Amino acid sequence: MDLPLDKKLSIGFSAVVTSSKSAREISSLADRLAYDSLWTGDHIAFAVPMLDPLLQLAQVAAINPRILLGTGVYLMPLRHATTVAKLVATFDHLCEGRFIFGVGVGGEFPNEYAACGVPVKERGARLTDGIHTIRKLWTGQTVSNEESKFYPFKDVQMLPRPVTPGGPPIWTGGRNKASLKRCGELADGWMSYVVTPEMYRDGLQQIAAAAKAAKREIKNFASSHLVFMRIDDTYERALDVAAEALTKRYVMDFRAATQKYAVIGSPADCAQRIADFHAAGVRHFVVDATGPMEDRDAQLERFAKEVRPLLSQLQAA
């Protein structure tokens, strides 16, 4: 089974919305540079400060009627699925259906699971159960979920249902076998990070196999990838800055991982790496401009003006 991937290339970026002023600035930048989507990450407790993703996106949704919004990714097992269903349905109304619900399990910071009273070893099972649960509630019908291990209930009707029929598309993260199997069985798309093009291609094959085994009929499958990106005049300078920033973010030596997974170097270097991922099946790129926060806008501008023109053949494909 071959997954029916999008034909069009789409490029968005990851950002942090810290105020109404920054929401206006980010919205203006996205429109001026013609980015397709805006994404926010999620953690309850992290090595660096992190705000709630849906509240950040709500600031942008209120002022920008164009841009597609997404979570990349929302750690759904940290919350009760019924509450998540209500939050996301509400946000789908507020942004008028311009939302992609990217979800994942995290787990690299077990203390945040402990703080939420959720066993970290249950995170995968809770995500699978949670996806089934929210989709039931999004029908707007009176439903029961008594077979659920984590979120059982009987005869509940959640209204209003989302603006998007069936609810916003759900893209799942992860790159291990269990995550890819879940994606193939349940998701509308895959949102990866810290993979190589070769790993991405293999991941899509595993997802396709899982979808076939589940006897799913998929009309369209979204293939996305969050890329750590740093543009500079030399590869080494880009590597130094990106590795330093990622090492601080993840509280571990990230230099080797930056070399292996990131999109770094000159505009031509970055364009080639993007092309490699596109050849592996990626159609939706989320650019994480890695480095000092004050460099973010300049990096996104360089990508739009110096890298994207080199991708014209991919955009026309």
Could you explain how this protein is built, in words?
By secondary structure, the chain is of the alpha/beta class. The chain has a single domain (about 10-315), classed as TIM Barrel. About 45% of the residues lie in helices and about 15% in strands. It contains 12 helices and 10 strands. The protein has helices at about 20-30, 55-60, 80-95, 110-115, 125-135, 175-185, 195-215, 235-250, 255-260, 265-280, 295-305, 310-315; strands at about 10-15, 35-40, 70, 75, 100-105, 170, 190, 220-230, 265, 285-290. The longest helix is centred in the middle third of the chain and has 17 residues, at about 195-215. It is globular, with a radius of gyration of 19 Å.
In terms of topology, how is this protein built?
Layout: E1 10-14, H1 20-32, E2 37-40, H2 53-61, E3 68-71, E4 74-75, H3 81-94, E5 99-104, H4 110-115, H5 123-137, E6 170-172, H6 177-186, E7 189-192, H7 197-213, E8 222-231, H8 235-250, H9 255-261, E9 263-265, H10 267-280, E10 284-289, H11 296-307, H12 312-316
Parallel strand pairs: 1-2, 1-10, 2-3, 3-5, 4-5, 5-6, 6-7, 7-8, 8-9, 8-10
Helix pairs in contact: 1-2, 3-5, 5-6, 6-7, 7-10, 8-9, 10-11
